[in-house]
Amino acid sequence: MQIAPLGLLTEDTENDWLVSEPIAVSALNKECEFLLEGYAQDARPQEFSDAISHFLALDKTVLLAVENEIFSYYRDCVQFAKSEGFDVVDISSADQVWQHIQFGDEILVCRRQTGDQGVYVLLECDCDWNEEEGLQIVFKNGNVINKLGPFDDFLSNADVYGLPELEKVIYQSRG
Question: For the whole model, what pTM was predicted?
Fold first, then answer.
């Protein structure tokens, strides 16, 4: 199946995904595969193409704009790890978080089943401060980061906590 702007995709029937070949993602400075979930059955497939196009047009500034929220996530993880007696990586300022994040090789694109029912782009990353849960960064419509934190498959904090007032909260501390 051909889908703009990704080109030819192959079907992964086990996961019900369409999978692209690796494509250059400027904001991440690397190539990634795109996994499209629910595309074949979707009533508005053009919204998938639009979200992917928006995402591919982004540069690193979209990530730099949320480094304070990522640093807050780091501090929450460190606080918990220290309370449990675990060793922690030392990051003294928000601009240093990038030295401790490894962007994933796969990007999931799916439709939100609640709320605005928009198309979202999910990036899963490894991070040195939370090896178990990592870091998930969610892009609403592919162009605005609307949620980050541990990888939990949720597309917004409103969905995580069942509270509509958290719709525009990028990072919600668990502590």
Answer: 0.95
